[in-house]
Amino acid sequence: MELIEINNLKKAYGKHEVLSDITLKIPKGKIIGLLGRNGAGKTTLIKLINDLLTPTSGQILVNGAPIGVQSKKIISYLPERTYLDKSMRVCEAVKFFSDFYDNFDSDKAYRLLSDLGLDKYTKLSKMSKGMQEKVQLVLVMSREAELYILDEPLGGVDPATRDYILDTILSNFSEGASVIISTHLISDIERILDEVIFIDCGKIALYGECDKLREEENGSIDEIFRRMFKC
Amino acid sequence: MGFDFYNNIPIYLQIAKILKIKIISGEISPGERLPSVRDLAVELKANPNTVQRALADLENEKLIFTERTNGKFVTDNKALILKHKTAYASSLTEEYLNSMNKIGFSKEDAVNYIKSMGGNA
Question: How far apart (Å, rounded) are the C-alpha atoms in residues A126 and A104?
Answer without folding.
Answer: 25
